[in-house]
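Quick note —
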Amino acid sequence: MPSVLHTSLWRPASLLAGIAMLFSSCGEDPEVRSYTAANHYEGPVVSWELPEQWGENPGMSGIMAGSFHVKTSLGPRGRIGVMPFRESVETTQIVNMFARELGHPDYNESSVQPLVARQKLGDRSFEVIRLEDMSGEEEPPRTALLALYRHNAQTWLFPFIADRALIDEELDNFYSFLQSTTLRAGKEPVRAIAPSLPPAQATSSGHQPTWDAPEHWERKPATQMRVGNYSVSNKAGEALDFSITSFPGEVGGILANVNRWLGQVGMSPTDEQGLSQYLSDRMIDEKPAKLVLAESDEQALYAAILLHKGRSWFLKLMGDVNLAQTEKENFLGLIDSFCLGDH
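Predicted structure written out below.
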């Protein structure tokens, strides 16, 4: 049963970034989008009853009126938010904010309609949209469950970002939470715009990194999550995937990321003591970095981790172990050639 009642006065700043907070967790690459709002608060008020299994995220800021997680035996998981917008924000606009992060093509007014379901909760009707991860970047894949409520010249967005199993487990709690909310529109509607921004992977000086890849590696198009993207294969049908990604902060730390990668190649997680068997020190672009080498009978993970000026850079090769061993020197040569151009 819900137990915690919370009331929030949402106080916007002049330049805000909120969508990224919902995607930010270990290994995830947020896309930062900017929003503008009035400097003097005449905005919306929201209150809710929080399920016992949920906790509130500290340090909430930006366009979020509320930010929560699910308490599990593995620690906090998932991201649930409360975000007020003005009435003129279209469903397609909001869906595309999340769809791009999950590898979907942009939706238009026609193509988005099959995704929208109506959920009656008490005396209110919510638009509910579910987006599954199509990017192939995360394991387990993320799901975005979006609930929209429109009333009194205001649009209220409730995003729930987590792996599919957690969302399925918490669906009743999510709907109970939505039904418990009390929403009051402000005198002045919130104005939300999402201008195009430079790629999030750029360095702090605006430079794009460079590297030298083997000629026989097949370069694939960069994505919002990958500044570098390659595939490697041989006649035996073995294959490797190589990516270069960048995230703000330490995104959970080295242990959390290594354990996530180990799971992706079917290996058991480790602890701080066991982590040393996979790690060694290496200099990349004249900066201290960590090299990760892990192999099982069938799969291999080779990665480099570089922390620089508040960002984490990951250069990661994974796939069939025999081909990985063949390409190991090529991988090491690539990471040694990696240059941020931001000294």
